Amino acid sequence: SSSDDSLYGIASSNPRFAEVMLQRTAKDFIQKWMYETSQMDRKLVTKALHQWELDWRKENEGEGGDSTDLNIQYMPDSQRSMLRSLPKPARGCKCGSVSHELVSDPECVLYRNLRRFSPHDSNKANENTGKASGIYDKYDGKLTRIGSAHVQRIKKRAEEEESLKIEASFVDEMENIQVTQLKQAVFTPSVLTIIVLSSIASICDDADMNAIADRYIVDLAFNSKDNRIRNEEDIDENMPLVALGKRKTEYSTCDNTSLKRKKVEQMRIPSSYCLGLLLLHISKTWGHIYQEPDHVDYAWHEECRKSTIKSNLETADFKRNPRQPGSLSFEILKFTLDESFMSRLKTKDCTEPGNTNQEDESFHMHDILILHLVSDLKTGLMKEIESLLTLGMIQINKKGFTELQQGWEKKLNPFILNDMWETGWGKESDTQNKFRLHDEIRNTIDNQWKRDQEAWMPQSRESNACHYHHEYDYNRQTFENQYEDYVDKIDGIAQFGI
């Protein structure tokens, strides 16, 4: 791809790598990169499986549970979340066991990881199940056979209703524990953009900015060709790998004359530590439930990022999701971005520019791993950040951290507002914040936008932009029809048996 060729060109122009790169072609470089990233992915999966098995064994040893008949070696949070959301089966429990029927049963494993945080004894609650129907016991033996059968049906129905009430109360308590104590979301927005905005607000609250060195400002002003070459070498030595591609585009768009006219031009890019914190926060909070959108939704979101909706099929961009639709792209990242890994990233960012040991290959491998994890093929996080920067919704400070720009809420696209309405992550719908979105995000959007029957109306007097529902629905339906035609032309209709 063009990005791979650009990365190859950057690496080969660096004096540190030039001699080695001259012996390799761009194809060799790309193949090596794909090999290294595939090795990283294998290590990610191995770490995740090991941790899941370890947690499952500790859970089985710590508490009793009906997990022997389930014949499983581990149960990750994503599997628990999926099973919890299933409808109640006709026989047995959602967990797959037939020895009980309710998830509030002490033997059920679906909420067993959360029970230990509960201040109440859920076993006693299950013992009280069915006592509300005791008023019908006085009729036993005093009615005819038909009357007794009728009373037994009423009694059984009352017991079932009471059991469902107790189960609903238990589930609500466990979900509150998951949100407040484990800091894991119960539900997730379907749009990654709002997850990234919430994560940016969260890490700005938690990160210690004072400990980070001011090292992520790149000076792109050059007075001569020789000075440019020397500065290129210095920049490459101290710049994180995630910034290399951006530097190349700046050089390629400016000739020597235009560069001489520039007095000072600065470029700020997110630090590896900032990107690691964002990846870790998303993985811990939503990684077990956020699923990649299908191809048509991904293409629609990409189209919505543009200033206007194109109606011409020949000029519209129909992009497919480079990641597997429905996959949990952030789920296992938290096992690699552990305390030791993040500590080394922070240590590197706390070091003044030029003082880092350039021969320490582990620093470079950490940067390479972050570069892979934020790539479009892995999570697409860097693309989201670049989009938000282009829209002016976020900025990057001198510490290399992303921050919300003032007035970001006025630039929200209607597809994000409609996702809030349809999914229910807004402040009015999600009163207990089971989506685990930052309060600043929820409060600011709630104060800025109100929905009526015709449109999303801005509450700020400074903004006159209204997003009308009929225009959005028409544009989306038109785009989906065009996308279907486009896919038919690319893939052909032979696959449908015609």
Give an overview of the whole structure.
α8 (192-206) crosses α12, α12 packs antiparallel against α15 (339-350) and α12 crosses α16. The longest helix is centred in the N-terminal third of the chain and has 37 residues, at 26-62. The chain contains 20 helices and 7 strands. The protein is mainly alpha-helical.
Q: Which terms summarize this structure?
A:
498 residues, mainly alpha, two-stranded antiparallel sheet, 4% strand
> What is the share of helical residues?
40-55%
Strand content: under 5%
Measured between the Cα atoms of the first and last residue, the distance is 34 Å
Radius of gyration equals: 28 Å
Q: Helical stretch count?
A: 20
Order of helices and strands: HHHHHHHHEHHHEHHHHHHEEHHEEEH
List the helices and strands and how they pair.
Elements: H1 2-13, H2 18-21, H3 26-62, H4 77-84, H5 112-115, H6 122-127, H7 145-180, H8 192-206, E1 217-219, H9 225-238, H10 244-252, H11 256-261, E2 266-268, H12 272-286, H13 295-304, H14 333-336, H15 339-350, H16 361-373, H17 381-391, E3 394-396, E4 402-404, H18 414-423, H19 439-448, E5 449-451, E6 455-458, E7 467-468, H20 469-491
Antiparallel strand pairs: 1-2, 3-4, 5-6, 6-7
